[in-house]
Amino acid sequence: MTTEKRGLLEEIKTHGQLMFGLVGLMWAIEIVNQLFFRDSLDRFGIAPRSFPGLAGIIFSPFLHADFAHLLANTLPFLVLGWWVLLRGLDLFIEVSVMVILVSGLGVWLFAAPNTITIGASGVVFGYLGFLLLRGFFERSWVAIFFSVLVLLGYGSLIWGVLPIVPGVSWQGHLFGLIGGGLAARILPQGMSQAQ
């Protein structure tokens, strides 16, 4: 096996460990939350306009209402997150942090009072926004190709930014998408230096 192939396989293995590790952590937290805490960990989500609710910005992507909610986020998180990760680990971390902060702050500022927002869908929408707009801002054929693929595969998610489904945080979706768009615009273009 050539050094190049070995390096590619090692990179794929590392990416897989990271993405499945994050999803595994979400599933482990939900299992523990359901079995031992009777969903009481959900209180650590984002509580709008309350000082303690700010901590929920960090915790909320790892908390879910139930297994159906987590299952709905798992596949898009893996696919879209992996596509962001293909651009480099440093960029993946930067995009993830920006999306979590923008989505979380948007929810904290604009969600209905006396609610708790949880779930990784803000991050999913952030990855979606990043991948859709990266082709526009970067203007490379590879980025445009991935933008078109994402649009064809996940473009229908865009409707989730509208307040049409009761009990679903359209604010998290909208501000996640905005956070991803901001990341596509302001983060360095081209492949990340750290591969």
Automatic annotation (TrEMBL):
Top-level EC class as recorded in UniProt: hydrolase
GO cellular component: membrane
Protein name as catalogued: Rhomboid family intramembrane serine protease
InterPro entries, per the entry: Peptidase_S54_rhomboid_dom, Rhomboid-like_sf
Organism of origin: Pseudocalidococcus azoricus BACA0444
TM ranges: 20-37, 57-84, 91-110, 116-133, 140-162
Top-level taxon of origin: Bacteria
Primary localization class, coarse: membrane
Pfam family, one: Rhomboid
SUPFAM superfamilies, alphabetized: Rhomboid-like
Cellular compartment(s): Membrane
Molecular function terms from GO: serine-type endopeptidase activity
Ranges where the Peptidase S54 rhomboid domain occurs: 56-187
UniProtKB keywords: Hydrolase, Membrane, Protease, Transmembrane, Transmembrane helix
